[in-house]
Write a structure and sequence with these properties.
Elements: E1 16-17, E2 21-25, E3 35-39, H1 51-72, E4 76-80, E5 95-101
Antiparallel strand pairs: 1-2, 2-3, 3-5, 4-5
Length: about 120
């Protein structure tokens, strides 16, 4: 797509890639080592990807995790994606976030991704 940020990504910024997807560092990282996994084919969100594209993304996530473990030694990870504007998707090309987490990076991490709706994060 002509105006899609991810369809015209600069090759020299690609960290990992395979036949169906590629990996870059997020330009607005939540934490050090924050990466994005993007399909080479332009599709809006996860629900439009093929099984091959899903598997390609998982393969890259596993390789990237090993890389990030060695470079940054995080204490945990969040993996997530936003599907649709109501879910916070701002670039309408499927991408998966891998966010390294570090002890103390937030006051109370309990509930993890549930924090997208702050009043629902603490469920106990």
């Amino acid at each position: 797509m002509e105006n899609c940020l991810f369809c015209k990504w600069k090759k020299e910024k690609i960290i990992l890639e395979n036949e169906y997807a590629f990996t870059i560092f997020d330009e607005f990282p939540v934490n050090e080592g924050h990466m994005l996994f993007i399909t080479k084919r332009h599709v809006k969100d996860f629900f439009e990807t093929t099984l091959e594209e899903k598997n390609a993304i998982i393969e890259l996530i596993e390789k990237a995790k090993e890389m990030l473990d060695n470079k940054y030694n995080p204490d945990g990870y969040n993996i997530g994606m936003n599907c649709g504007e109501a879910a916070g998707q701002s670039v309408m090309h499927v991408h998966v976030h891998l966010i390294p987490r570090y002890n103390g990076d937030v006051k109370n991490p309990r509930g993890g991704v549930r924090g997208i709706i702050p009043e629902k994060q603490n469920y106990c």
